[in-house]
């Protein structure tokens, strides 16, 4: 509840009359002061009662047309206020658009009589006039960034007819809109250009490694059990091959996502990171459907920027999805360059903690910016991917399947990180993006194919590591064109001979 200048003027009149009555010893003046004061109290009581009744019976809903959309898309949000019985007051209902959402100023709405709907600087609103039961409005909200955006409970403001008293309260329920990053549509996951049938299939642990709904053939290495040799494949290829037999076991899944600057290679919306993120979101959905404990670890150029231990509750899956949509290659480095020289990570964290204890609207607006001031959870010297395995994944107890999502730009370090994750009882699924398929420089087609073939040899070498299965994640259309062109050139060369 609040009061205006008009109230304070009349309250001052009551005080003045009371003082004059005391000084002049005039009872009639005191009666006048009591009359004005009583009138103010009666108006205040009537206003409080009217607001209390309205707050108890007012139903406010804000309904996004869609709860999930893509980056830079717009969504229509309907704002509706209804009362079972008319109120004696005008009720202004205002939506609270979240930070990062742009509200269009061309909202449409309808209300009875002189009811209005508007989109002011502090948010879209609709007015339910006194004596009316319903008012509605709609506004457009554009989401230029990926993430989860929460429209907080709408705020209702009102005043009495004389303008002496005001009230403000929140009502209704919040609404959430999830914005997905625009991702590639030709995701290919497989080996040597051949797509695997179920990229998000059951993660089963075999005696020697991890498969995806199939038993994987790989070259024999000293130490493999003789009983696991696939004699038919050995006879066909003149080389010993073993088949990993799958035995279902409950394991923890750790997604290790590479967000370093090199992952930004590729066209806008179709970078190496975009393809790996789409695959990672599928892995989160896989884990959710099967209640598999899942953790998320992400590395930037200088260390960890996400560190969530494996968990199987609903909030953990949702948090992993939100973080994946927020991540972008090189973001941490850009944030470091934008930060003032005299602002250390410790100072940024201290200010963020102060903002968390502040309930004001000003602090609420600033909190997201301070939360992003230091993007690193832990800074790591040397190779961040390898360091994340040694510093964070090594702390996870129990059987762990590490899903490594990276590229082939630094093969020695990738191999070291994968080997470290596969130590002991650990098993690794490595999903690699071939850099050559994202550069698209229009060079010699055969040289491009040779670079892809070199990547494939590296992938096979990695897959032959103990406890490791390695796959390619690539733009399917580009890969198909590359392989088809190579086959056509080879046929033409054979025909020429």
From TrEMBL:
Q: Does the keyword Iron-sulfur apply?
A: no
Keyword Cell division in the entry? The reply is no
Report keywords, A-Z. Answer: Membrane, Plasmid, Transmembrane, Transmembrane helix
Show the ranges annotated as biased composition (Acidic residues): 102-120
Residue stretches of biased makeup (Basic and acidic residues): 328-341
Q: What is this protein called?
A: DUF58 domain-containing protein
Give the residue ranges for region: Disordered: 100-133, 183-202, 328-348
Q: Where are the transmembrane segments?
A: 12-42
Spell out the InterPro entries in the cross-references: DUF58
